[in-house]
Amino acid sequence: MKKTNSILRLIAASIIPAVALTACSENDEPANGGENGGSSNPDGKFVFATTVQGSNATSYVLLTGESLDEGTLSTVGNGLTNDGSTQWVFYKDYLYALTYNQGNAGTTRSYVLGEDGQMKARSTEYLISRFSSYGTYNDDIITMSTGDGPANLADAQGYLPKTLLVTYLNVEKETSTKNDTSTGQYNMENFLGNGEYVTLAGAEQSGTRLFCGAIPMGLSQYGVAAGNGKWIRPGFEHLVHDEAGGSGSGSYKANELVGTQYPDSCYVAIYSNSDLLHPVIAKTDKISSPCGRYRSQYYQTVWAAENGDVYVFSSSYAKTMSDTKQQTKLPAGVCRIPAGSSSFDDYYCNIEAQTPGGNRSFMRCWPAGGDCFLLIMYNKALTEKNPAATDLAIFDASDKKLTYVTGLPENVSSIGKTVYSQNGKVYIPINVENEQPAIYAIDTTTAKAERGVTIAATDITGFGYMTPKL
Q1: Is 398 helix (H, G, I), strand (E, B) or coil?
Q2: Torsions phi, psi of 27, nearest 5?
Q3: DSSP letters along 182-238, please?
Q4: d(Cα 58, Cα 92) in Å, to the nearest integer?
Q5: Distance between CA 403 and CA 393 in Å, rounded?
Q6: Spacing of C-alpha 11 from chain mean position
Q7: What domains, with CATH codes, occur in the chain?
Q8: Distance in angstroms (rounded) separating the CA atoms of residues 210 and 212
Q9: Of residues 456, 394, 397, 400, the one with CA closest to residue 428
Q10: What pTM did the predictor assign?
Q11: How far apart are CA 208 and CA 235, in angstroms?
Q12: 434-446 pLDDT, tens per residue?
């Protein structure tokens, strides 16, 4: 049986170990490599990252508890206060608070569970580069984004090539290192051979290889200028901006073509190790880009199953592009790269067709044990106004079947960013309006949810299982 190194990941990023079965059957082993809800190691605890909204201030508290299935935990006089996080990442009995700040570096620190059963902040606090996605490999949490390269690589017009910016957070050594972009080896321009630059969505380790969704972003100033505009597709000339504009994650510069000219293709970059150099590119035209989106964040939708097969999900987010030439015609779906292969096989499932109205997509997804995956579904089509990601569904990859989860509260305000899987169930935080949030346990065979431990807080922003560190 194949094991992984992770406990939890999000966005978009965990491998959830389970028995290698061909369906979503019950599993006697938990998702974190040996800890069965605290029973395997009586010193272990579940850890809950919570937000408490007061009348005058917001506070963030890390709570510990014994169970996911019952009880109530209060933040009053309990837990470790902290500065909050964009994404909580539980990995190898360490908890990292990854903080994202638009256009700036984020302050990151990590936490451990002490022998006294209380959470403790580790000594080192450091800055990480702005990131749009993340993943794990061996002892590293990897954050990634695509940004401007160094000045020495500028073209004749002074335009900078888009470059992969990586930070490696070694959880054991408590160090932070960045990739060397000065030589140009991390150039992301013309990454797919069509002139466009890409960003990476997620990092999924399967064996020694690393699988990353490669998301085409269009033509940068550098790409537009290359070869006197040779990479601009006929009929797409109007998409090149005459002047700078937009704001936040939607900002753009003059002489950029924002958004891909090839929305009906899916690409996965397969790396031999965590250096993120010299990838093999797997391509299929059955689905669109392999990621979920929320503003500038790219959620991981490339996941390895227990037998090593890699399932590649596409939310077809390109349907939301304003220009019809950049809108994908493909529905949300899933394809597969078989274990040991570097290309897609003929596996395909139209997920969208199995949703109410046959037109709904999902925001993000995770493995849920066996051949099952948990998806956060939108409540309406992406092309409709203000779709909310407040539904859940179980996807059985063997049967190519999507089943909506029942038993959830009606007043869901948001759904958590981390999951935990054991004994045929997958657990996820559910935040509700005007009520206390709770962890819900979802049976992957029946897709029925049951309310578990309740947290006396405003939101549960992450949770995981940890054992004490000396």
Answers
A1: coil
A2: -135, 125
A3: TTSTTB-TTTTSSS-EEEEEEEEEETTEEEEEEEEEEE-HHHHHGGGTTTSPTT-GG
A4: 29
A5: 5
A6: 2
A7: 45-466 (2.130.10.120)
A8: 7
A9: 394
A10: 0.90
A11: 42
A12: 899 999 999 999 9
